[in-house]
Design a protein that fits this description.
Blueprint: H1 7-22, E1 59-63, E2 68-72, H2 77-84, E3 89-91, H3 102-108, H4 115-118, E4 125-131, E5 137-140, H5 145-149, E6 159-169, E7 173-181, H6 184-197, E8 199-200, E9 203-204, E10 207-214, E11 217-226, H7 244-252, E12 259-264, H8 265-269, H9 288-293, H10 301-314, H11 316-323, E13 329-339, H12 343-353, E14 359-365, E15 380-391, H13 400-411, E16 415-416, H14 426-432, H15 435-445, H16 454-458
Antiparallel strand pairs: 1-2, 2-6, 3-6, 4-5, 4-6, 7-11, 7-12, 8-9, 10-11, 10-14, 13-15, 13-16, 14-15
């Protein structure tokens, strides 16, 4: 059983981080020295040293009675869950990829199937310590300007070194029901009803997400957290020959009301990580022959992300495609929040104009207003995630599809996450993400402008 690192080791790690920041020349770019990333924004390469976060990778202390944990900012959710789950707890929201860090999810808006009842990861944070641009570490809580501006700031306001989060007690297993829908309006109405009541057909719903495979084939997956029941049979394991997303179709097609499956809590949390949703198909892993030869320990999102990073750097596939006369391709990797009442409108437009399938659906509700990502508190949104490439048509520019998506999302009253490519002009960006408030906070915490601002990071890729 993994154990917390304790307060003394945390204090020493913070001291090393602070020393590495103080050692940077005033005009040097500030970045973290970390091996993994879940961002899809390319940035200019730099030889400047990164901040020493090598000791900020774990859980500090766990308060089982109070159902809270103090966690270091660079702790991955995999390592966090390895401490909490054997003790019967998970964070309120566990993003779907193992190597997302807690600090990254809070500053960059993580999401998962519990978000329809628990919001986004930052909404279960009780307190955090932030290393700011002026070199000071500030302890902040909900209602403090820095705390409220921190979600969706992507390091432009500093880096969380410690976060105190609430934990949710959970049982050992999860029963999932895959409900089929041929009509997107009916799917949207069902989402709205489940979010409002927390139930479906008289049963509680603990997790809710979905997949649209085609305009006439979509599924909602309803998760119910449950204890061990010998009558339910063995739990499914999708690290083997069948990708998890294929099981949604297979089980969901068993009847008009779909069918059920059963996973351990651990496998449910990482069900999407094993195949990077469905993106592992780019490496042949949807072919059972290839999948059989691919080691299980390499079936994980960070391995695939590194492969994509190598391709982005060396353009091997891109050069081969050009030699074969294939068109250039635009990367369309985005997550957007759409009001549930406009979901059908967006999905229909997206299929007509972009044509990428499948897409992921994840309902959410925000409990309060957050200035840098202003969702209406109490309103139901659906995160729509789509990740891949599309051919660039003759006469079109790279980025045209992404620009069209940004425009359509804004027209429908939605918002776009900033972990990937963004194309907004400065004025539009400032309005959508309330950078007036952020600039007020930056004047207090980073008066010399040591850190790049959010527009520079998200759009100019600094």
């Amino acid at each position: 059983m993994a154990v917390p690192v304790g307060l003394d080791r945390h204090a020493e790690a913070v001291r090393r981080l602070k020393a590495s920041y103080d050692a940077l020349p005033p005009d040097a770019p500030v970045r973290l020295a970390k091996r993994t990333s879940n961002l899809f924004r390319t940035r200019a390469r730099t030889d400047a040293p990164g901040l020493d976060v090598s000791g900020l990778l774990g859980v500090i202390v766990l308060d089982e009675a109070g159902q809270t944990a103090d966690v270091q900012g660079m702790c991955t959710y995999q390592d966090l869950v390895d401490v909490t789950l054997p003790r019967g707890f998970i964070p309120y929201v566990v993003p779907q990829l193992r190597t997302i860090t807690l600090g990254g999810a809070v500053t960059g808006l993580g999401i998962e199937s519990t978000s329809f009842r628990n919001g986004l990861p930052h909404e279960s944070v009780l307190e955090m310590d932030v290393l700011c641009g002026d070199g000071e570490i500030r302890t902040v809580r909900p209602g403090d300007d820095l705390f409220d501006a921190f979600p969706n700031s992507y390091g432009s306001l500093g880096y969380a070194t410690r976060l105190r989060i609430r934990l949710e007690p959970v049982p050992s297993y999860v029963e999932v029901r895959h409900l089929p829908f041929a009509d997107l309006d009916q799917l949207a109405r069902t989402v709205a009803d489940i979010v409002a009541t927390g139930t479906h057909d008289g049963l509680p719903v603990d997790g809710l997400d979905g997949v649209v495979f085609a305009p006439g084939e979509a599924y909602l997956t309803l998760a119910r957290f449950t204890g061990l029941d010998h009558r339910s049979g063995p739990a499914s394991d999708y690290t083997g020959q069948e990708p998890y997303f294929r099981s949604i179709q297979r089980i969901g097609r068993t009847g008009p009301r779909g069918g059920t499956d059963r996973l351990t809590m651990y496998d449910y949390l990482w069900r999407w990580d094993t195949d990077w949703f469905w993106c592992s198909g780019a490496f042949g892993l949807h072919d059972p022959r290839v999948r059989r030869l691919w080691p299980r320990r390499w079936k994980r999102s960070d391995v695939y992300h590194r492969i994509v990073g190598l391709e982005n750097r060396y353009q091997v596939k891109g050069r081969l495609d050009r030699r074969r006369g294939l068109p250039e391709r635009e990367r369309v990797i985005q997550d957007v929040e759409i009001p549930v009442e406009r979901l059908t409108e967006f999905l229909t437009w997206f299929d007509d104009e972009v044509g990428m399938r499948p897409v992921w659906l994840c309902p959410l509700r925000s409990t309060r207003d957050w200035p840098s990502y202003p969702l209406r508190p109490g309103a139901t949104y659906v995160n729509v995630g789509f990740w891949g490439t599309v051919p660039i048509a003759p006469g079109a520019r790279d980025g045209d599809k992404n620009r069209a998506i940004e425009t359509r999302v804004t027209e429908l009253g939605g918002h776009k996450s900033l972990y990937s490519d963004a194309y907004y002009d400065r004025a539009t960006f400032d309005r959508l993400y309330d950078q007036d408030f952020t600039r007020t906070v930056r004047k207090q915490t980073d008066p010399d402008g040591r850190l790049a601002d959010l527009y520079e990071k998200a759009v100019e890729r600094r």
